Each structure stands twice: as C-alpha cells, then as structure tokens.
Amino acid sequence: MKTDWLELMVKRPVWIIVLGCILTAALATGAQNLYFRGDYKVFFGPDNPQLQEFEGMQRTFSKNDNVAIVVVPKSGNVFQKDIFTLVMQMTEDAWQTPFSTRVDSITNYQHTEAEQDDLIVDYLVGEFSDTEITQDMIEKAKEVTLNEPLLVNRIVSPSGHVTMINVTVQLPDKLDQTADVMEVTASVRALVDKYAKLYPDVDFHLAGIIMMNNSFAEESVNDLSTLVPGMFLAVLVMLAILLRSVLATLATLVVIAFSILAAMGFFGWTGLYMSTATIGAPTIIMTLAVADCVHIIATVNYNLRQGMAKATAIIDSLKLNFTPILITSVTTAIGFLTFNFSDVPPLRHLGNLVAFGVLMAFLFAITILPALLYLLPIRIVAQTDGSSNTMEKFADWVVRKHKVLLPTTALIVIVIAGMVPLNKINDVPVEYFGEELAFRQASDFMDDNLQGVTNIDFAFHTNKESGINDPEFLADVEAFSSWLRQQEIVDHVLTLTDTFKRLNMNMNADDPAMYKLPEQQDLAAQYLLMYEMSLPYGLDLNNQLNVDKSSMRLTVAMDNVGSKEVIAMENAVREWFAANAPDVTVTAASPALMFAHIGETNMKSMLSGSALALVLISILLVFALKSVKFGLISLLPNLAPAAMGFGIWAIFAGNVNLGLSIVTSMCLGIVVDDTVHFLSKYKKAREKGQAAEQAVRYAFASVGRALWITTLVLFVGFMVLAQSSFALNGDMGLLTAVIMVLALVVDFLLLPAFLLVFDKKVYSTGAENVEQKQSESLA
Questions:
Q1: Adjacent-strand bridge partners of 494
Q2: C-alpha–C-alpha distance, residues 399 and 270, integer Å
Q3: Helix or strand or coil: residue 400?
Q4: Taxonomically, which superkingdom (predicted)?
Q5: Residue that is last in its domain, among 568, 589, 610
Q6: Strand partners of residue 552
Q7: Measuring CA to CA, which residue among 618, 721, 773 is closest to residue 226?
Q8: pLDDT tens readout for residues 566-624
Q9: Number of domains observed in the structure of the chain
C-alpha cells in the first residue's frame, strides 16, 4: 500500500504539484490575519502573578512607563546657563509627547522653602526665561539639586556631569500597544534630533520602558528583513554546491517556500500574533525542511550514479527514506510541541508554529519534491561518487580505531557535560539587546553615570484612609529606605518620606535640625495637603500615593543586575518587613521583577517538557527501529550533544536566559535525525547478516554524506539566527548550532564505536556465507 502511494509521485507528478499548491494557498491566505506585538508584556500570560501584581499597582497609582532623555554636556558640567536653557526648553517641549502625563527635570523640580509662616513651592528655575537666568540662580540650583535625595542619582549625577529629563506616558489600555510605543518613540527622537542640532556640544541618550518596548519591535523587524533573506541566500549557495545540481536546489527551495507559507498562514488562521520570539520561526522551518530534502535528493543522486532510471531512483529513495524522515519529523515536532510547557506565550507560539511547519515540510518533501525531481531535467552521470569513497575510508578508520575512540570520546563527553551545573539561570532584560544597539548603549551609559534601569516598585498598604500619615508607618518606611540605601546594588530610592522630612524642615523656618519626619499624624497630613495644593498639574504625587492616602509607592533603582539579584532583593525586602514592620502589607512589582520570575519558573517548566520529550522520543524510536535495544542505544547520541553544548556554554558564558531554556527540548527532536538515519541503515545491514564492522561501513557509505550535508545546513541556518541582535534568538541559534555539530561528531565517532564494542549479537539468515554476499550487494 505504501509502495503504491509513493509511486504516485512519479506517476501523477503534475496532479501532486497542483494539489500541493492548492493546499499551500488555502493555508497561506491566513497570513493576512497576522499582526505583530513588540511590547515586553507579550512574554507574560494573563494569569502570570507578577503581571497581575504589576497591573494592580498601575491601577492603584499612576502608570510609570517612561522615556529617559539623558543629557550629557561634553564639558562635563550640567550647571551652566546654556545647559539649563536646553533642559528648560526640552522639558517644555517634552509635554507635547503623545500620551505624556508628567515630565520631570532639574528645572521644573518643585523646590520648597519657608518664607516666614508660608510654604513656598515653585519651580527650581523653570519660571525664568533665557535672559533672566543668572549665575547666582545656577549656583543656588546646584546647591539645592546636589543635596536633594529625590534628585541625586535620579535626575542628576552626584558630580553634576549628567542630567535626565524623564517623560512619563500613559498608553491607551489595550492589548496591542506597539503602534502607540512607536508613536511616542518617533516623537521623542524628533525632539532629541531638534536639540542635538541646536546644541552640538551635548550628547543625548534615550532609555526607559518605552524605548525597551520599541527596541523589541524594531529588532524583530530588522531580523525579519535580514535573517530570513540571508538564510535563503545561504541555503541556495550551499545546496547548489553540495548537491551539485541547480535544479535540485530549485526543487528544495520550492519545498522550503511552501512549508513557510503554510506554517505562517496556519498561524494567521489561529488568530495569534507574531512577536520577537516567533520572528525566527521561518529560519528554523527553512533549516529543518532542507534536512528532509537533502536525504531524499542524496539517495536519488546515489541511485542515478549507479545507473538507475530516474523514476526508479526516486521511488527507491522514497522507500528508503520515508520512515526515517517521518520519525525525525515527528520527533522534531514533539520537541517543539513541548514548548507548551513554557510559561512564556511567545515561546509556546514558536513551538507550535515550528512544529506545524516541520510536519508540512515532511509532507511536501515526500510529495512535491519527488514530483519536481521527476519533471525537472535533472541529469546525473553514472559514476562512482568520490565522496562515498571518502566516507568509506572514514568508516575504515573508525572500525580500526574504535577501541580507542570509545573511551576517549566517552571521557570527553563526560568531562564537558560535567560543566553543566556551572550554568546559572540569570535573565538581564537589558542584555537581551546587543551592545551595538542604541538602546543597550543608552541603558549601559545610564547605569554607569546616573542610575541603573532595573527598578522595583514597592507598595505599602495601611488599609485605612490617610494611613500613610501615621508617624509609626512613616518611621517604618524611613527605616526601610535607609536600609535600602545601604545595599550595594541600589542606586536610588524614591520615597515620600524624604518629602515629609523636607516639609517638616520648611515649616520650622528651614532649620536643618528639623529635617526629620513629623511626629504627629495631623501635622503630617496638614503638611502633605499644603504641598499637594501648591503643586502644578502633572507634577502631583499620584505617582507615589493613591487617592485616599491609604497606600504609598516607593521605587528603588538598581544597577543593571540579573534575575538572581532581583529576586534576592525582593526576598530580602520581605524578610526585612517580616522582622521590622510585620503590620505593613507590602507588594512588589516591575518589569524587571516580572522577567526575573518568568526566567526561574520557565526553566522549571521546560525541564518537565524536556523530560516528556525524551520519554516520547525514546518510545517512538523503540517502535520505529523495532528494537528496545536500539531504542535505548539511541539515547546516548541524543542526550550527549545537548549536555556537551550546555557544558561548553557554561565555560564561555554561564548565563541561561529565556531563549536557552527551550534549547534542550528543541535539540532532542532535531538531533534524532542523524541518529535515526545512521541506526536504521546500520540495523538494516545487521539484519541482512552483516557483522557490526560491515554494518558500520554500510551506514557511513549510504548515509554519511547526507548527514554531514544536513548538519552543515542546520549549522549555517542556526548560525544565521545567531546573528540576531536580540539575545533570546541569537543565543538560542548559537547554542543550537554548536549542538548540531556535536551531534554529528557523536554519531560519527562515539555511536559507531559503541556499536562495535557492545553489539556482538549474530543475526542468522539461514544460509552460509550470506554475510559476505550481503556485504557485496550493499557495497
């Protein structure tokens, strides 16, 4: 039945191609439903507890998505008339930023001071025009600024060489905010470009949550416009050289195109969106589709060189490769489907998208490809392939050296794999972006010169109206703020207790000795009311207080640290309150905290996914190879490459991010390709009476060339993905490329040596000298 069906590919090639085109077109039309989301929130499902906490805090207080415009005078001194003029003008213009709700700078800082019995609240220098700014004003502003905890290491550096204009925006409350983020970014960039021309002696950097969101979107578009075309070109060149046939290469490209169009169209029909993580899907599908095609084409070419007719050569190739390609396609799909264990929606989307694309690639490889090979005027001269001789010589070397190869390669695998525990799960969101990108450079500069972009918001809930004015509560917050400022990784603490202390000093004739918290609740409430009534629109305290004054938000800015340090800080804070202020209810939230937790939970989830993938793939191989023994043997070359890959990663990098958390599951499915093809050929020879030595030689001769070609294609494909400036894609591509090479090394050295030592079973065929005859026929 299978034979009859396979023969249709050469008996009815035109109909097969037409049906394939209809199927592809039907699926591809779904691509019109695709849309792109570039915001960081796509990495968190709606049930994610950290996302819920973050959105709850955003509802309680004003939203704090921001763009940080870092102003860097080349003179190294912010406190100059022209710089103050620049900051004042940019501050005023920044209010025109779409969706802006607040703009903070040194010039519009609301400075308070006493004038007899009155509290004066006014702009530090913002009400003065360019001609009225004097050196005395600047000196006063410098004295106030560099001694104000709310400003130092936040709005201005301690040395006064850098300052920042912080634009807070409130984006429309909708699922896809990508267009709004791009609108804000375009406006701010235009603002900076305007003043960069007017002030050539000043440098500007743009950081903040909005710029991070925009970088997610921009880098995805860049990857799509560069990596996919780059991969197509690489595949075209490699296949033309390795397959030595332009027409066979053309047929392969048709299969690739059909597979990608079908997969992307299917994804569109599901109603899901594209994201930074799924942008790499076409490249991955392309790479895996090539592997299927190469095995079929290599066998066809081999048969043609042996003098077979084209139709016979194609049918024989399909018969020989159908089961191994089916197994590898299913195992690869299983590996990607286990991404559904991930807590990150885009990674689940990537897994499902690629799994469907892999299965479509299999379908087109056994239908469209042979039909095209039959119709296209491909001509192969009947001759001995020199590369086969190379494989046979290599096989002879492996057979001769197998007693040395086995312990040597096994020891190397064990030593390198032993490095795996040196890896640590550590996501640094800023480092998702390459050092050559403007956002990364701006964030690093801000971290080095002002404050880090890793923030955590802590909300303190008294659960009673005006509860934040309670002196005991304020004392707890003040003690906590002091503790925070002693932590090594903390750059700045934005706390309302500093405002209370300054107001208490102001209302006591600016006596420095009274720079402390009010001792009575009604006095604290009175101070706060007077202050709030004096604040201009847009510079109120909604970013720190809720409406009924029952909750207060404190923001801590830290160095650009990883998930380990962020979670450690959160735990330390909770321990501090449990020990020092157990009556205060504390919640913590921020994008940095969200990424920190998702990295930890995702790794645990993907370990379960990898375990399931291993079990399912092993069971499938047992049935496919019709042997428990060979199924168990296959575990060795399937597990060793991933273990070695992560061991090497531990030596050269050591940090495992979200992208790397899925590599094991993905590679378990892909590396099966080499193992299945090698073992199936080896087992076939053994069942025909060949000794282990002859079976190894046959496996190398029949499939060795195809294996190294597919490995080269896989390596190049994932190395193209590794060029992404987005680390989740780039790191995943790099480590997978390394594992692909290691898989070939294991299958070419460790696996045959293992078989030669441990597979001593004699397969009886019921006839004398059958082993020799089969050896001759197989050769």
A1: 555
A2: 52
A3: helix
A4: Bacteria
A5: 589
A6: 460, 545
A7: 721
A8: 999 999 999 999 999 998 999 999 988 998 888 878 888 888 888 888 888 888 888 87
A9: 3
Spatial separation of the C-alpha atoms in residues 736 and 333, rounded to whole Å: 16
Q: What is the pLDDT of residue 624?
A: 77
The whole-number pLDDT of residue 58 equals 87
Q: Is residue 611 part of a domain?
A: yes
Predicted local distance difference test score (pLDDT) of residue 255: 94
Give me the domain span that covers residue 366.
Answer: 1-33+243-383
Residue entry with tokens 């107001």: 503
Question: What are the residues whose beta carbons fall under 8 Å from the beta carbon of 564, sequence distance 6 or more?
Answer: 424, 425, 426, 596
Do 406 and 441 fall into the same domain? no
List Cα–Cα distances, 536 to 109, 166, 533, 627, in angstroms.
11, 17, 8, 79
Residue 373 sits in a domain whose CATH number is 1.20.1640.10
CB 171 within 8 A of CB 177: yes
- 440 and 408 within one domain: no
Sign of the CA dihedral 437, 438, 439, 442?
Answer: positive
Question: In this model, does residue 454 exceed pLDDT 80?
Answer: yes
Distances (CA, A) of 718 to 220, 331, 656, 673, 735: 16, 19, 18, 16, 9
The closest of 604, 589, 595 to 728, measured between CA atoms, is 595
pLDDT value for 385: 45
Q: Where is the domain boundary, 569, 589, 609?
A: 589
Same domain assignment for residues 207 and 275: no
pLDDT digits (tens, 9 = 90+) for 111-165: 888 887 778 888 888 655 555 777 888 888 899 999 999 999 999 999 999 999 9
Report the pLDDT value the prediction gives residue 294, as an integer from 0 to 100: 84
- Asked if 464 and 565 sit in the same domain, the reply is yes
Give the model's confidence band at 490: pLDDT under 50 very low, under 70 low, under 90 confident, else very high.
Answer: very high
d(CA 22, CA 262): 11
235 lies in some domain: no
Range list of β-strands (E), 300-448: 424-425
Angle at alpha carbon of residue 23, lines to 20 and 29, rounded to 5°: 130
Contact between 554 and 474 (Cβ < 8 Å): no
3 state DSSP class of 524:
helix
Same domain, 733 and 756: yes
With a cut of 80, say whether residue 476 has pLDDT above it.
Answer: yes
131 vs 125: CA distance, rounded Å: 12
Residues 226-248 as b or e (16 or more Cβ within 10 Å = b): ebbebbbebbbebbbebbebebb
Residue 122: CB partners within 8 Å, gap ≥ 6?
A: 110, 111
**Is 431 domain-assigned?**
no
Number of C-beta neighbours around residue 626 at 10 A = 10
pLDDT tens digits, 167-218: 999 988 887 888 899 999 999 999 999 999 999 999 999 999 999 989 888 8
In this structure, the answer to whether residues 579 and 596 fall within a common structural domain is: no
Same domain, 445 and 531: yes
What tokens does 73 get? Answer: 């005078």
What does the mean pLDDT of the chain come to? 87
Closest CA to 614 of 397, 357, 364, 331: 331
The two tokens of residue 679 are 């073992």
Contact in structure between 544 and 60 (CB atoms under 8 Å): no
Residue 418 CA to residue 745 CA, distance in Å, equals: 18
In the chain, the percentage of residues whose pLDDT exceeds 90 is: 44
Report the 10 Å Cβ neighbour count for 760.
9
Query: Do 251 and 236 contact (CB within 8 A), yes or no?
Result: no
Residue 380 pLDDT:
67
In a domain, 216, yes or no: no
CA distances from 215 to 343, 596, 631 (A): 22, 19, 46
Per DSSP, the three-state class of 588 is: strand
Q: Are 771 and 735 in contact (CB under 8 A)?
A: no
Q: Considering only CA atoms, which of 411, 419, 418 is closest in space to residue 649?
A: 419
What single letter denotes the amino acid at residue 708? W
Least confident span in 242-251, 261-270, 564-573: 242-251
